[in-house]
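User: Could you walk me through two proteins back to back? I'd like the raw sequence and the structure tokens for each, with a short line separating them so I can tell where one ends and the next begins.

Assistant: Of course. Protein one, sequence then structure:
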Amino acid sequence: MLKKVLFILMIGVLLLSACKAATPEPTVTPTDIPPTETVEEVDDPAEQDGATETIIIGEGDRMPCSTVYEYETTEETDQYQAVADQLPPVSEDDWIRGNPDAPITIVEYADFQCPACGNFALYLEALMETFPTSIRVVFRHMPLASIHDKAFISSMAAEAAGAQGKFWELYDLMYQNQQEWSGFNEEEFVEWALSQAEALELDLDQFEADLNDEEARTQLEETTNEQLSLGLHYTPFVVINDRIFRENKPDLFALIGIHEYGGYEQCPSWVIDPEGSYTARMDISAGEILIDLFPGQAPLAVNSFVFLAQNGWYDNVYFHRVVEGFVAQVGDPSGFGVVGPGYTFANETNNDLSYDSAGILGMANAGVDTNGSQFFITLASATDLNGGYTIFGEVQEDSMAVLNEIVIRDPQTAVGFDDATIINTIEIIEN
């Protein structure tokens, strides 16, 4: 099960394509959206200039970073945010699953015949299974009849099941079997829905009556037309904590980092002196690793690392990705390699530094300026990473042998963390 959940979480954001109605783009007036972070993973390096921007540190100031709701938006995103701003608030009339008091609310406008909605439903299921206290999901109908011939009848089926307390059960069955019934005509779909209702032990006469309720169908069509006229033209149309979710922003895993693991809604305070000297004593299950940090060359990365270490973020966190002859990566308390601390900060590259040997400490990222909490230690020369990933420290020579004791772990195939190497604590020593 762990492998399945991990796989879904890792690819979930890629599945958020859309089913789009045959209607024009929204023309509502955009609202201002404050500017997250993304999944941090070491892959191919991004090309960057070699110079590091000068960082001015004022006493008591916070280091520059982007918090979870700080990100650049496109004109199209702003237009859809204006649509989201006009949608009704969540109420007891909505279909809601998950922790009712969860700090993260995902409102989904969806069509049961939309393949992208089916993918997103699978993603939401994995999220709720993995982070049950943090997530609640709100489902709202958005049947796109212009492209899906059973959009309305499938929504009516879900409502008919909901009238007997089995909305989510039929919701799951329709998405799980979407490919089967999508090719049916409406009459065949009704027969299929009735068979599912029988399996759910529903009152079939009542289910069929509700399925064909003309007044309820008219109301659903009117609501759908209102949403179309507002500018809601695609599914799944997703809103996270009142923000339109497009291009993986706002960063859902940064929000999970904040609410599930004690992350941060503000940028970290400055806790280092860039002209100072610092050593990190990393106590791991394989031994002790001493790391010289580079505050002068990478003040942002070192400050964030020291801040998080001093606040216990790295305590009892597994090396979730360890590739023989490449890197050992760590820093996500969930162990899935997707969660961040709630903020991101800029890359700091320096032409005088290189991943030319084992023991180099670098920041993992998902692209330029998306550094968060995850970092890696090279296990061999990896100069292809030069220029794309901030170097902010180096393992001391006496600790190099411990790197060989870190257990190899492929997150795509590993089951559980029983054999994985864990960070017990990280102590920061000011020299």
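----
Protein two, same layout:
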Amino acid sequence: MPSHRTTARGILLLLLIGVFTGTASAAEVPEKTAFPVVGNVTYTDDFGDPRPGGWHEGNDLMSVRHQPAIAFVAGRVQTYVPSPGSSTGTCMLYLHAKNGMTYVYIHLNNDLGPNNDNKGHCEGGVSWPSGINGDHVRRGQLVGFVGDSGDANGIQPHLHFEVRKPSGRAINPFSHLKKSKHLLFPRTPADSKVTLKGTKVLDRTADSITVRTKRIVVPSLDLDYLYARRVTLSASDATVRRKSGSGSLSTTTLSDVKVGERARIVTTAFDPTWPRLRATPNALAVESLLLLG
């Protein structure tokens, strides 16, 4: 019996041939791309490795259940829902770029809780944002959630990511992934704020603070996920408070912040420019800084 990947790729190949016949053969991956998973991942160049259903046609980005998956490039989203009664139940989506390239996201989430419960379906709010099928998205926009659906069930959640030419032929994503930029959070609406939780202060200057994050909360996208990463933020206008052991709060200044302290940071409202999404040094500014001791 063919695996879900063989069946789905056959459908994809027919789709690509039908939709993109006549697309210029010079189609290629753009220079500026967003790494397709937000958060800490590990991956290797496993393209071409043997698999039960054939050779491996992508790279596996090992991650954590429910981590945000984002648009590698701008394009149109097409979700793939397996037939009722399918034994594989793989949640997938295709991101069709304007130049005819297609990017495939496989093993998206089908779990409702924090563990592998398989109680969800391939649908909006579980595998991908509600109503996204057919939408045109921008680079870095939220398109799905990492999981272990299909024949990845029960192993470490990950995103199987493919890059396909207009003909449907898979090419190795590895070099393109290595060049893509890791975002701190997916593309947000304008005037959004982000909260950095569980942070540890690594450095401080007269007008900036450097921390190592633990969790990222994006209220405008209803996201709360793990991400351990070094971030430097402008803090010249930050409101700084300290929480005592009894829970009382006192106002202090940035100069009172000590390396090694735990903190919670809320950014000022911002528009989602590329440097802010990437959290380049001082691209984000601190609105409030709560020191937790």
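Residues 195-291 form one domain.

Let me know if you want the two compared in more detail.
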